[in-house]
């Protein structure tokens, strides 16, 4: 993406992202080795999997003369935040279609997005549900516009995510990551070596649809073995978390010196340790956990008094 970012922002992205070895007494107990791929550190504003997923969308926009990116998200969306920043740095106009009606928006995610020049359009939940319906989308289409699906999850996201695999200087037995729409998981499946396994932790309730979505985004995934989605670590649902989970996350962060938030990375790490405790991961495994970023979400949780 550096090539399409403006000169003053070049070099801001840290690639390859750092790989951090994690030390924790439970890892010794379970006899596994755990590393964290710190994609949260790729870029101060375009973090984690959103950077990976946007890269080829931006290249596509450039190649096809698109000057305007339009996408969808909730009021605290990491994707909306990243897209606004990426558009600002690449000289592309951006529009965010935001779920919910707000007359005075003062949350930090949307404040940043506005500051980076994003036009915000608020739609009611009923309309928002039609975000994949071509008839509804037609009102936003224009020759200079690239419509990016919610979360940046489209087949264009796959190659950018797959690139992270080559940045790790060894072949792990197991990759672990949080998943919601499945776009990041699809990219990882596309890029993994045959022997490598993937455990995706669904951060939402009712994640049965995710496997189908992965196969829609990357049809070859249906025939690639070695990946599974754990559906029972959602802790109540998307963006929900118990005081116990948040306490666990804070303790884990303090022990390992790894910053986490409770919606994606913290919940997935908690899920991984529940899988380890249940004996579902082989002793001796060398594991790489992908920190998908999203640390900007902590500010929103604090503003809402939820932490
Ligand atoms: C969006 C997001 C995810 C979910 O990724 P999907 O590709 O939708 O599965 C995971 N982690 C973070 C930090 C995110 O912002």
From TrEMBL:
<feature type="domain" description="Tryptophan synthase beta chain-like PALP">
    <location>
        <begin position="13"/>
        <end position="293"/>
    </location>
</feature>
<dbReference type="InterPro" id="IPR001926">
    <property type="entry name" value="TrpB-like_PALP"/>
</dbReference>
<dbReference type="InterPro" id="IPR036052">
    <property type="entry name" value="TrpB-like_PALP_sf"/>
</dbReference>
<comment type="similarity">
    <text>Belongs to the ACC deaminase/D-cysteine desulfhydrase family.</text>
</comment>
<dbReference type="InterPro" id="IPR027278">
    <property type="entry name" value="ACCD_DCysDesulf"/>
</dbReference>
<keyword id="KW-0663">Pyridoxal phosphate</keyword>
<protein>
    <submittedName>
        <fullName>1-aminocyclopropane-1-carboxylate deaminase</fullName>
    </submittedName>
</protein>
<dbReference type="Pfam" id="PF00291">
    <property type="entry name" value="PALP"/>
</dbReference>
């Amino acid at each position: 993406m550096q090539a399409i970012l403006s000169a003053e922002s070049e070099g801001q992205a840290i690639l390859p992202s750092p790989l951090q070895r994690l030390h924790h007494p439970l890892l010794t107990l379970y006899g596994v080795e755990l590393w964290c791929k710190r994609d949260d550190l790729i870029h101060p504003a375009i973090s984690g999997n959103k950077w990976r997923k946007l890269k080829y969308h931006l290249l596509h926009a450039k190649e096809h003369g698109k000057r305007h990116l339009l996408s969808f998200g909730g009021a605290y969306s990491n994707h909306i935040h990243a897209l606004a920043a990426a558009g600002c740095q690449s000289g592309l106009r951006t529009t965010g279609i935001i779920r919910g009606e707000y007359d005075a928006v003062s949350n930090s995610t949307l404040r940043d997005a506005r500051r980076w020049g994003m036009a915000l359009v608020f739609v009611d939940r009923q309309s928002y549900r039609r975000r994949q319906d071509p008839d509804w989308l037609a009102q936003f289409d224009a020759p200079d516009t690239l419509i990016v699906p919610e979360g940046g999850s489209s087949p264009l996201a796959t190659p950018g995510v797959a690139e992270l695999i080559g940045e790790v200087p060894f072949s792990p037995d197991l990759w672990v990551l949080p998943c919601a729409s499945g776009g990041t998981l699809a990219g990882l499946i596309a890029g993994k070596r045959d022997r490598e396994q993937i455990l995706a932790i669904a951060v939402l309730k009712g994640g049965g649809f995710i496997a189908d979505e992965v196969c829609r985004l990357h049809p070859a995934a249906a025939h690639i073995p070695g990946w599974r989605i754990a559906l029972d670590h959602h802790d109540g649902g998307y963006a929900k978390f118990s005081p116990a989970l948040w306490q666990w996350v804070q303790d884990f962060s303090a022990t390992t010196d790894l910053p986490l938030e409770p919606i994606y990375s913290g919940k997935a790490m908690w899920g991984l340790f529940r899988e380890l405790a249940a004996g579902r991961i082989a002793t001796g495994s060398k594991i790489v956990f992908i920190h998908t970023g999203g640390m900007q979400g902590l500010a929103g949780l604090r503003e809402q008094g939820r932490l």
